[in-house]
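3.2 Worked example (two chains)
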Amino acid sequence: MINTFIDRPVLASVLAILIVLIGLIALVTLPIAQYPEVVPPQVQITATYRGANAQDLEKTVTQPIEQQLVAIDDMLYLSSSSSNDGSLTTGVTFEVGTDLDLATVKVQNKEKLAEPVLPPEVAREGVSVKKVSTAFLQVIFLTSPEGRYDSLFLSNFAKINLLDRLGSLPGVGEARISGEREYGMRVWLNPDKLAKLGLTPGDVRNAILQQNRQNPAGTIGQPPARSGIDFQYPVNAPGRLLDASQFAEVVVRAQPDGSLLRVRDVGRVELGAVSYSSFSRLNGDAAIAIIVYQSPGANAVATAQGVQRLMEEARQTFPAGVAYTIPYDTTKFVRASLREVVITLLAAILLVIIVVFVFLQNWRATLIPLVSVPVSLIGTFAFFYPFGLTINMTTLFALVLAIGIVVDDAIVVVEAVQRHIDDDKMGARDATIRAMEEVAGPVIAIALILAAVFIPVAFLGGITGRLYRSFALTIAISVLISALNALTLSPALSALLLRPVRPARGPLGVFYRWFNGAFGWFTGRYLGAVRFLVRRAVFALVALAVVCASAYGLFRHLPTGFLPDEDQGALFTAVRLPDAASLERTDAVLRQVEGIYRATPGVAYVITLAGFDITSGVNNANVGTVIASLTAWDERKAPDRQVPGLLARLQPQLSKIQGALVFAFGLPPILGLGNTGGFEFEVEDRTGGSPEEFSGVVEALMAAARQRPELVNVSSPFRVSVPQLAIKVDRDKIQTLGIPPIDVYDALQTYLGGLYVNDFNQFGRTWRVLLQAEPDFRRAPEDIRRFYVRTQDQLMVPLSTLVEVRPTSGPEVLFRYNHFRAAKITGAPAPGYSSGQANQAMEEVAAKALPEGYAYEWTGTVLQQKRSEGQEPISFGLSSVVVLLLLAALYESWSTPFAVILAVPLGLFGALLAQTLRGYPYDVYTQIGIVTLIGLAAKNAILIVEFAKLRHEEGLAVPDAAVEAAHIRLRPILMTSFAFILGVVPLLVATGAGAGARRAIGTAVFGGMSAATMLAIFIVPVLFATIVGLAERGRGRAHPAPGVAEGPAPIRGGKT
């Protein structure tokens, strides 16, 4: 079969070209993302109970809904937040890979079961169930540079003209306005006027309900009717009111004298906003932020480009004085990271070719491995669709490492053919046929073994399993294509191109002679060492035992981590003021934070989200978030302008701001796994106690955590000491006066919290009508005295005579996690500590500080890290077992494979040592590197063991066979190993976007392959001689006397 391709090089070329073409077609259509789809999908339930505080909302809405959210397939966890502004958000998070459309239907069905017991006000507002993405894709800002338009206009211009169009784009999961000022017909009531006129808020509400409604009137002449009717006339009756002036004219009551009391007589009507609880700014100027979320599994880069195209189209229709900008775009980091990886890929190809050229010293011979690289790498993309892979950091890392692997097969073929041409004076065709008879078996065996190393880890679960899967399948596919290439195109090109080597002249010849002489000198010393070790195997075996013990010791003491933190081009800052601080006070602190960032070199945009807490995802008046979007990475090469340097420099300045807790942090390694970098820790109250008791437990836990040197920025949004007012109603008195209790509560809700009445239509949309007291009547607790209710005798009674108002405190937001009241604690590893050390410290603190009845759970990134722990021994074990079984089948021996398997710890030792020396933790990328090293270490060992076994079967003594195999295979082993090692050097010294991940995996494989190469060439011959010798003595097999030649084997022209 192979001879067919040798004799038909065009056929071999066509096959390679087809592989490349299919790969190119796939390359331009594949989704592009930072990582595979590893973010758990989420379905979100939202509801509003206007006027309700956090505790009432939890009891009446949150708990009834949560009680139904059980027995849902693939649900990972459940979290809820109930706020004092009456808003509820419940997130149902599912396992990665869950069908989100089906999950949404299941959650909606469960929520419907709870609706009959929800307050009617909640049902009228509506309960929303929708699938969401938890990670920003982009933040778009609408601005009015000349100040022509205010936030109210900009917000509703975005809602009417942009939001639906953005949300319908392919790949967009949701588009949401932060700091939204949605239009609402605001009826601002004057309690004093109402009381003087003997009116209540309920009277105004009823009047609007009666006079602002659709009134379908039917049709004249509509069948059935008597004959003779020639026309039908639809009757149009006045319907909903249209604008503020019409609402102001609504008649509230007719007076006995015939005059009319209208809404304008008791209040003021304007087209305002439904909510004024938050706002946004860009670089200190008022603006509206549109946050675009990516749908799960979508092509992030293509989605972002689609958003930009739509905004450019929409800009053509913007009114004069309206502009937009996109100051925060997560795909910039994705694109920059992938661009850096592609540059690394090209640099690795160049270095690999240089190594091959130095060793082969023949441009014809170098050309053949050079051609094999694009065929194998580009062809790999052709198989991404069938396996559900995307172009991401993991798959591109795999291709970078694959460069040094895919050239191996071509190098083995070329080196074998060239050796027969030069040593045996054979023609190129005959030499190729002879060489392929020798190396076809090892090539196939190595390809199958390398693929087999990676394929088992592709079936692991969780996020780590998905990262493994992308990496493993990419390398396995490239290795198999490389083997196919080595059996088809490489022999065809070898027969066409290779010629006897002629001594080079000039400077290149001088270099070759020096290199060959040095290599010959090294080979002689190396063979002497191998002969010594084969005769005295105990030294090598002791050394192997020491290496294994050292690897275990390094593994035990190496700090753990999940994924390296990256400079993703942005800094997030959480701002928290004392409890009950107003939005005005929060804004003053946010202005100070903005000033610090705007004066910092390297900051391009400063985004302010007042009233939004990034750590908890809820809205409150005393919190805010500032996002510093940084300039491009190539403009921030200085360490103090990269995220770690900026954090170290800015946090002391932020900490000096008076009257607020301000701390900055980077983004989580995987966007969507948590809201912040660092950890998210959920403390659960399983006793059913009061929020105050729970708060004491949480504060004690955080105080203990802050004493640990491994932890910084330990905080929690859970507060129960927020100043509040408690109202006690004198039920006896209101019954005596004939006042329905509901009238008292309705008055409070309407005047203070706002009451949703019904809707009106404008601008092609439906908006809400809301009643509330004028701001001047709800500034202080004493204002409650100005509210009146009506008795059954039509007398107006002040609420101050019916209720008692006293100061108290309570929670601003109540959180729940997996059906228990919870408090989220966030924090980060202190400088010099890994995430694994920080997580362990937090667990140790919780074990000591939490009393009985309280528990904790991890969420976000750490939850996924914990769920993945313990999988790497399974993956390493599976890979090693598969290698062992394949080798046993290949060699028809259970003992010989151990000469290969026992070489694997050499690579592990080198990887762990390199991580330790560079201060890197044992993280996912280290684990991926180790899986790679299992295959590569086995590959080098196979090259020696395969040849030694062949020579032994030809009659050579086991020690002699081991030494000769070491001699013959030294050059190809060093050539392929150095090609791989130098190919990962660009990863080792990476800078720019995504450098953390590239350095992490580069360090592991560089150190591991270096150790596996330099130690294995000495130890593997000894292992073969010892294991095969013991096995044969155990079987009582006679074999040639173990004699080892004293002189070194001849070295031809410096080549071995």
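3.2.1 Second chain
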Amino acid sequence: MALMPSRGSRLLAAAVAMALFAVTPPTYAATQPSARTQVTAADAQPTATGGSHTITLITGDKVVAGPAGTVSVLGADGEPVAAHVTTVGTDTYVYPESALPYVSAGVLDRRLFNITLLLADGYDDAHVDHLPLIVTYKAAVQLRAQRVPEGATTVRTLDSIQGAAVAADRSADFWESLTAGGAAAPQARAQDTAPSFAAGVAKVWLDGKVKADLSDTVSQIGAPEVWAGGDTGEGVDVAVLDTGVDATHPDLAGRIEDSASFVPGEDVTDRHGHGTHVASTVAGTGAASDGKEKGVAPGADLHIGKVLSDSGQGQDSWIIAGMEWAARDEHAKVVSMSLGTDAPADGTDPMSQAVNALTAETGALFVIAAGNSGQSGDRTIGSPGAADAALTVGAVDGADRLADFSSRGPRLVDDALKPEITAPGVDVLAARSQYTPGEGPYRTMSGTSMATPHVAGAAALLAAEHPGWTGAQLKDALVSTAKLTPDYGPYEAGSGRVDVAAATKGTVFATASAYLGIHSPSKEPDAKPERTLTYTNMGDAPVTLDLSFDDSDLPDDMWSLSASQVVVPAHGQSTVTLSADLSRAEPQFSYSGQVLATGADGTVLAHTVVGVSTGEKPSRLVVTATGRDGEPMPGLVNMMREGDPAGLYYSFVTTSGYVNALLPNGTYSVWMWGQVEGTHGPNSRGMALMSAPMVVLDGDATLKLDASTAHEIKAVTPKEAADAAVRVDYHRTLGDTASITDSYTLSTTFDSVWTNSTQKPAKGELSVTARWRKIQPLLSVENGRQSYDDLWVLPGGGLLPEGTSDVDAVFAGGGSAADYAGIDAKGKVAVIRYGDTDKQVPAAVAAGVKLLLIVNDEAGRLREPLRRTPLTVASLTKDAGEQLIARLKEGPVRLHVTSHPATEYLYDFVRTWRGAVPKDVTYKPKQDDLARVEVDFRNDPADEVDEYRYDLSPGLSAKVGATMLSRAQGHRTDWVTADARWMSEAEVPRESIQYGGSVSYRAGSTAHEEWFGPIQRPRINDAVGLPRRTGDAVQVEVPGWGDSGANHAGLAVPGQLAQSLALYQGDTLVTQTEGGFLYADVPPGRRPYTLVATTERDAAVYPLSLRTTTRWRFTSATADPERAAQLPLIQLDYGVDTDAGGSADRSARLTLTPSHLPGGPDSGRIRSAGLDVSYDDGATWHRQRLDRTRDGWVTRLHAPADAEHLTLRATAEDTYGNSVEQTVVRAIGLK
């Protein structure tokens, strides 16, 4: 849940952009390369380690977000998984294919795949060892039986919503149990029905996070007038669900009847301050101010439920449990909840359901904050304030002006009337918890959180006057007697500002609000929706009320009442009918206003908020999908509506190839990912992207997506190469707010991707991007003219030695030990049909098989990781494999086998088609059209290195790429698309990772990339983040192990290598931290600073760069609080030729190149540089003569004959006085 103590909404993670490929596991040295998924999450990971973040999804798949904005997606088995990645606005969703049917069926919460949200809310594996969920059941019997799917435990029962809070383990067990071993969705698709969960589970939600959202303000709402009559709320039970309470505060002493904490591991004590402030606003006695700073109902009895942690956040299930406790166990008449979600809600979520259910069951009144997202515009009411039964509270200042932060209606989806009322919420003075910063007994806070307890206190005063009233009656009375605020409409400020004096002294009340729903004038031209308004008279004499509409945006003659005057009997009720003639309404408009009930003297005695929407009712869009073979095509249909940031709809197409969707009218972009026949016969699999960029829906319609006319998106390489990874992005904008990038990475089971041609859309942007990594084939098998080009090397196995050979093949049936009896398979190729590979591989090894070919038994390539084995194992598709088996049954077959265990070359291609998708979607560059990159992997003791290259597509906030497992200290030639933006990185699994900056290559050019070469030391680049100051806050990321590659920065896996940072202002230590990330508040003004970075690693593992110390001295001034200013640090780069092990000649030429970080402030020029060297690890030093050249400062070494290593100490200074000094112990070896 979201705490709302101030105008600022929570700090969200930066846009997590797009994901793509899955990483190759660190198995055998020659495993098949694969793809890696990336997400931009720079601001989501300011940790002390500067390392990556792992999020285990509900499916058991793992998403790993790195500090450079990359994300890897791996299955529970550690293997790559196909993932749909959708970026909507600033939020990115990563959907494994297994989850999509349940998301589209509406039984699985989309937030469970919102990587932006999960990172921002601390739901990564480092912060929680389980995934918090709320499970609702189809029937109460499942709830009572506590049939929790395997892999999860029940945290608490939430029977108000027929559900439970559960904690799911970080494994695939829960998902397997929930989906009946993965069979539920395929079975539903085969039966042409929507999928459902096993174990009686109706829906699974993320147990999301919620944040917590006086003297003059109490007088503002008329409370002193009520006190003067003797009503202080005495005897009324008010529950405050918040961050707890400081029970020792003088204003709350003796006022707390009971308390309970629903936050695991925390007592009810308020160490945040929000709950104490709220509780004292409700019922504080003012004892700490001699009675001056009283709460609204100082005589009420408080029941404190701690549902938000000391950090001000809580989970949905904590809040629901607190609501059940307050309403049922404590019998609270009023429940005050100054909390809510940041995201807008439609009132159907678990918390809203609980509010409605508990209100109906107990009669309690839930008073809930509207939220603090008003600056984001309309439709910003969060949960649980979106609940029908909630009395939802906005905020005004001391002059009844609406606070700019106060969330506005209408409610999401149905345009219902919210909020209902406002109260003072700006600069509210109330009790300060002694456990929070500050002095004195009181503090000032702003937010709808502060407005809410004013209304809760008012409800307590009113309940004391009318102890038999239900929560609904209290709500009607407070809302219908609120002070009118005519400058604001009901969707902004409800009925007006609460006036407790009018409510308690009044005798006439009306229905609080009357919403007539959404109606379509075109489909219901004669529609006249109605609602009944009820007027209640608590007085001893009848009252005549004149009824009229206020001067709002209600059109003349559109609204009518069954009577313009009504007589309400003493202690009785009268009703009138409100109706709206929608033939007089504008289409696509939400109307709101108030019905005023005035007495004989013209005074407004009561008023009712009314509203109706003419948003069109949904139309039916029927989508029929046909595959390349003319048969129905299953898959996922996406529909995005123009101008609607929330208007993204999914539907899963079953094997019928048909989907029937109800959608709001509008202009849509529709696209579908569907499974089709691939390029290798009927049993091969391809993926088709079929799109209709402009679909105008103004009534029921049919859309045909026919893949029989689709064209293959393919890349043709100058030299033979096989697909290692393929990704396709669909990017579309419609209007100012509807924007999406949908990225799909082909699973290894697919052999091709297809798309249809389109016209350029009349509105918005359209682009399709294809990304390929194509490699020299690891293994090739031929038989005469028959080439088995769809052969796939299974990960976990080895590869044959480099070279070519002709090998006899044998057919060994099912591949069991018995199948090899009587067959001479030693040194041969064994061909078998797929079975239990855990038994088939050992049987082949025992038989002496040289190469094992497994024929898949279903469509597509076989995707199955092996237990580690030295045997080379590859799969054949069903069609090709059965043809080979048939030939083997006819007679001897000799296969020509070629192996390349170390890839000597590869192609990284990217191609974007903008505006329209043509028929020809083939990318066929010539050799001269490409750029050549010579890549070396050096100076690392590991046997293997994972290397990645990302394409940075213009206009897309994405970092996407492909993985290649390479030998350390090896060489490879890469051919890449020219003029595209690229970013690379290389990783030693479980040890360290190097990040390269963005770069573009010219056609025909040759560049060099070196990984893990000396001299490794702290180095900063834009891939990880540049040091900056915002206001008087400094944030620095210093990667500790940058190598000699151009613009590289290197990070260690947490726990593997030691690093620390310290920041000094002058000689005073500001802060220090372990790891490569530092954040600190610094004194205002311009002052001198020193940043010190130290690193150290084990000499037994890493012979070079054992220890480093870097001191940056610089001057920094207060920066713009809204715009970060980069710090003027100087970077040091080194150039020296070394061998593969990192050793240089004793008279080697060494270049020192100082430079300012890119994009920094004007710091003049580098005016001097110095270099000292040591050949005894720093015991003695020798000053080197430096000659300045175009490349930097150059010197030549003169190492003694017995020296084994060079240690260096380099310095540089600019004309503004900024400087750097860097010491690297054993920077290089000497030969």
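3.3 Remarks
The chain has 16 helices and 81 strands.
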